[in-house]
Amino acid sequence: MKVAYGIVGAAALCAGFAGGLVAAPHLFPQAVEPGEGWVDLSVLPDDLIEQHRTTAYLENEIKSAEMSKRMLEEMAAEKAARADIKLPEGVPSFPGGRLVEAPSSADWPDIAPEGDTGGAFAAAKDGWVVINIWATWCAPCVKELPDMDAGAPRLAEAGVTLLAIDADMSRNDTLADVEAVYRKRGVKSLAPLFAAGSDANALLIASGQTVGAQYPTNIVYRPGGEPYALFYQMPDDRTGIWSSDEMIAFFAALTESGG
Prior knowledge:
Layout: H1 2-23, H2 46-51, H3 55-67, H4 69-81, E1 100-101, H5 120-124, E2 128-134, H6 139-157, E3 160-166, H7 175-185, E4 193-194, H8 198-206, E5 217-222, E6 226-231, H9 245-257
Helix pairs in contact: 1-3, 1-8, 6-9
């Protein structure tokens, strides 16, 4: 378990750094206007914003990204090779990009997330569930939280429980960090959940990511905790997809069909 933990953690951290590189230029004067695909680092925790202001930190991010380039390319190739899920008749196309088959190694994570005081995690297993795996240092993850928050009640009406769980393999996040980000981003519908230590490792392994992890990762489960499909970051860095009529209609049709 310790070996698996280290491998997953290192790869996950590198993936997160690579994502941060896209956002880093926002903190410095630019000769061009931010365009499509840029991420505003002001959504990150204050301590990370300050770190991104230092040349040494950015240089380390660049080095980490260069060292992990081959690993990330292999991860991307493996994900690209996964087959798109074959949707039941009558279910519209998925509005969140590619919806791919869950790998054979995926399962329901046997974890007890911090912050789950009401037992929502265990209870959710009885129905359709989407687990969103994120971390506070992942700018795209933090950016989509308000949209997820707006979509969660509507998804619940469609028969789907949306759970966002911070699984920080760098072991820097805490439940307090999650709560702080939620306050900063105005998140009220989603329960602040944090998977620490071995629980974070188990959550990533449950998504079939035993070599590397992509943040965010979303796992769709059938009732009973049966893995159904995976999807990753929303396409083209767009916002408003989680709470869109198209997303709600998709999951309403999927749950009604039984998958």
